[in-house]
Input
Amino acid sequence: MDIAQLKLRPATDQDRDAIIRLISDALQEYGLPLYLDTMDSDLSDIRGSYEAAGGFFDVLEGAQGEIAGCVGLRPAAGPACELRRMYLKASWRGKGLGKRLLKHTVERAKALGFSRIRLETASVLKEAIGLYTSCGFRPQEHADLSKCCDRAYVMEL
Output
């Protein structure tokens, strides 16, 4: 795949299996599980869990339809939203695509009228944490983290 040929587009239900594979592969690299029956059940109905809820779920797609990355955003409490599911295939990391996905998400969050983006992550995802903090996310103390997450970050828009 050529980076110039990658395009962002809304995910469809037909992308579900490829998205789950992408996320599962990325999590396995770091020894983290995927819980499709519980905390990761949003992946069983991507459009319903994101777009119908007032957010979005987009994929980074190559010219041949292969999915190189994904990112989702959905409403949280008040004027906040939650960044979820930002992943890239291992072969596409380190090429500026994570920053592209994050910038896209921030722009979309603003366009949707959110004033804050929150995210949860695991401390083993050091590269992701580095990206988030370099782009303006700040650590947030939060008592109610998801099962596999031990850190929360927030960005005021």
Remarks:
- The chain has one domain: 3-156.
- The first strand starts at residue 7 and ends at 10.
- The chain is about 30% helix and 25% strand.
